[in-house]
Amino acid sequence: MFAFLGRTAYRWRWVILIVWGLSLLLALPVLPRLGGALKVGGFSSPNTEAAQAREVLQRELGFAPSTLLVIYQSDTLKADDPAFQAAVGRSLAGVRDLPGVADVILPSADRHLISDDGDTAYAIVGLSQAPEEAQRLVPEFEAALVPQDEVRMSLAGAGAFYRDIETVSQRDLRRAEVIVFPIALIALLIVFGSVIAALMPLAVGAAGVALVLVSLYLATRVTDLSIFVLNLATMLGLGLAVDYSLFVTSRFREELALSAGNVPQAVERTVATAGKAVFFSGATVLIGLMGLALFEFMFLRSVGISGVIVVAWSTVAALTLLPALLSVVGTRIDRFSLPWRSVVDAGREGFWVRLSHAVMARPIAVLIPTLALLLLLGAPFLRANISSPDATILPPDLPSRQAFDILVEEYGAGEISPFLIVLQSESPGDIFSGEQLGEIYDIGARLSADPRVTRVQSVVPPALPKEQAVGVAMLQRGLNRLGVDTGAGRLVNDNAAVILAYTDYLPNDEENKALLTELRSLEPAGLTVLVDGGTAEIVDVVAEMYADFPKAIALVVAATYLVLLVLFRSVLLPLKAVLMNGLSILASYGALVWVFQEGHLSRFLGFTALGFVEASLPVIMFCVLFGLSMDYEVFLLSRIREEWERTGNNTQAVAIGLQRSGRIITSAALLVVVVTASFVTADVVLIKALGFGIALAVFLDATVVRALLVPSTMRLLGDWNWWLPSPLRRVLPARPLVEESV
């Protein structure tokens, strides 16, 4: 089949190039529209307790799905000054009539919205949209704010944060593109030693990424995709396209030399060998990314969808566009050669042969320290604090992050995300009974006495004696029924009540997590308890995500094992490959903790330590890296299997196979490292960490694992590498699905 594909690519080369050219021309007007079609967020699930609490708050107490906070400061006026308050009111005059605005709470109506020193105040604007949709209202909202000479304004809240994440994500992408293309070109020139050959993978990579982005735009017409796929799709798309193009172009140069310049034969043989390996390598990457489809979170599903699209287009480009280009370029592939030996000069003697023989001569002496090194690199993961992101992942120069920092400085770290303790009566309509109001009072009083809590808002004021507090709640209910707005309607109705507890800690802090555990253990008589808030959302998201993670791991490992079992007709090689991949992934996990949680290298990489590892990073890195690592495993073992079939000598097969593919794999990995490491320049810490983690894992996999662990373990296993039980021999295809003999 692949030989036929190679013949077709040569025969119809100009048609293929024209079709690709027209596709790229049609894609150009679509590319700028992708950013606006993607969603921000996707880290939440409707199945968590926090989500259930929010649903009760919205249904029973009319809480807005999301809020924006308008922060006011003045150099001349105090926040309780009538002139200050009048300026606040005038600034919001045009906001109240916006279609997405549900309610507005002014600092004049709630003294707690004014800072203790009186220099700052903020207004709460409730929005009828969820945070992900609310970001689209932010530009209109900012336009409706009326500037005031007396005060300066800044905007915080989920909608503002999400808007800035979208802005900075696109900025990060543009910066990475500026960095990656010239560096990748230099790396390719070093690898190939020829200008024309070096331009091939880069051209195919750029074309593949363009169609990936267009496909993502079309996918947004039928499903929500996260804004973060913009960076990941570009990172992975360039890496894979250049990776595959490198293998195909390198093999073409070999076949061209073997066929004495016969271009049609060289193209056919290239697609039949390297093209087949690319196809099955793409299948292993696809399996890894499909594991993300098991997660409920839109963010992770988006990564899975975008990954499938990336792999598909990268493979198609390597099997159609690249052979057509090679058919046209032909013997001119080495035009404008540079004065050094190229990567494809791989005979039966050389560095990789000497290295493999040296390793296989002392396999245990190499295996033990190599394993120890990888385990040592992964050890920091034992102290990982897995959590979800908050505003601190944004760079400090963005407006919403600056507004968040003002709130933290003036009000405390917990002002923007209080605990919301939702209490529902087990007997509908009975919340105002003396017994249940007493239970609400007891919870509020307990919170008020807790040193972690700075203030409590409740319809039964905990600052008063119990009987008086219950009486106040009853009085407010009576006044509300008479049409007097006491503000108590925001905190209670006949079926439910909410207590707001503010702390002086960020949502990710351990003090808040401990308090959440205590709150969820409460069992007040006649009431059910649900807890929402920033900390509750983080804890619930992490718990649900990691409940699904083992299932994703099992699916990816099992499916990959089966593909490699068919591919190499070996029981042990796929198992060994899975274990090797696990070691390189573990090492990258340890680096995430050491660098991004604990802050080592933070000054060099330009970020502030998070104190945690963002929950989705290990999940995404496992699915991406498992596929990428198998990518290199397929290319390496294909060459080794090819030689073993020819000679039946395991040691020689490993040495020659490593010599013929080791330099290419290392060069391909170098290019992937260049592409992914360019995203370390990102301002969003999540993207920075993802780029760093993938780059490190690929580097370790292509050097330490492939150069040391693979030859040493294959030497120890000997002929057991190729063991296949008789029942499987009868079931599996008679010929292994590896590269055809040269």
Write the layout of secondary structure elements.
Layout: H1 2-11, H2 13-27, H3 34-37, H4 49-61, E1 66-73, H5 82-91, E2 101-105, E3 120-127, H6 131-134, H7 138-144, E4 152-156, H8 158-192, H9 195-219, H10 229-258, H11 263-290, H12 298-329, H13 351-361, H14 363-378, E5 386-387, H15 399-411, E6 419-425, H16 434-449, E7 453-457, H17 466-481, E8 496-503, H18 510-520, E9 527-532, H19 534-568, H20 572-597, H21 602-605, E10 613-614, H22 616-647, H23 650-677, H24 685-717, H25 726-731
Describe this structure in words.
The chain is elongated. It starts with a helix and ends in an 11-residue tail after the last helix. The relative contact order is 0.12. The longest helix has 35 residues, at 158-192. With 742 residues, the chain is α+β, with helices and mostly antiparallel strands. The chain has helices at 2-11, 13-27, 34-37, 49-61, 82-91, 131-134, 138-144, 158-192, 195-219, 229-258, 263-290, 298-329, 351-361, 363-378, 399-411, 434-449, 466-481, 510-520, 534-568, 572-597, 602-605, 616-647, 650-677, 685-717, 726-731, and strands at 66-73, 101-105, 120-127, 152-156, 386-387, 419-425, 453-457, 496-503, 527-532, 613-614. The protein has a 4-stranded antiparallel beta sheet. It has a 4-stranded antiparallel beta sheet with strand order 7-8-6-9, sandwiched between helices. The protein folds into 4 domains: 1-37 and 193-345, Multidrug efflux transporter AcrB transmembrane domain (Multidrug efflux transporter AcrB transmembrane fold, Up-down Bundle), CATH 1.20.1640; 61-162, Alpha-Beta Plaits (2-Layer Sandwich), CATH 3.30.70; 349-388 and 541-726, Multidrug efflux transporter AcrB transmembrane fold; 418-532, Alpha-Beta Plaits (2-Layer Sandwich), CATH 3.30.70. The chain contains 25 helices and 10 strands.
